[in-house]
């Protein structure tokens, strides 16, 4: 589970076995987690986060989208 970055209480990461899916990022805080598609940025799933937290997380995803996509592409092209 490659970790990308931690911003405040949120850990952003992706799973190493998700090559078949479009680029996305997972975020976790404690037992809460969500998944965001990156192209375009859109909430894919959520468990436990309140809507105001998802709004805050979405801002982080938008700010770091290019970094997340680059990390995704670098990781999965390396594993080819």
What's the rounded overall pLDDT mean?
A: 91
The tally of beta strands, per DSSP, is: 5
As residue ranges, the low-confidence spans are none
Computed over alpha carbons, the radius of gyration is 12 Å
What portion of the residues fall into strands of 2 or more residues?
A: 35-45%
Order of strands, main sheet, comes to 1-2-3-4-5
Q: Major β-sheet, in short?
A: 5 strands, antiparallel
State the domain count.
1
3D shape: globular
Distance between the termini: 17 Å
Order of helices and strands: EEEEEH
Please report the number of helical segments: 1
- What structural class do you assign from the helix and strand content? alpha+beta
| Helix content, binned percent | 25-40%
């Amino acid at each position: 589970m490659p970790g990308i970055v931690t911003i405040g209480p949120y850990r952003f990461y992706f799973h190493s076995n998700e090559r078949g899916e479009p680029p996305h990022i997972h975020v976790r805080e404690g037992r809460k987690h969500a998944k965001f598609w990156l192209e375009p940025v859109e909430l894919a799933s959520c468990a436990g986060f309140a809507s105001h937290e998802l709004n805050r997380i979405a801002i982080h995803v938008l700010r770091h989208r290019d970094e997340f996509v680059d990390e995704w592409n670098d990781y999965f092209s390396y594993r080819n």
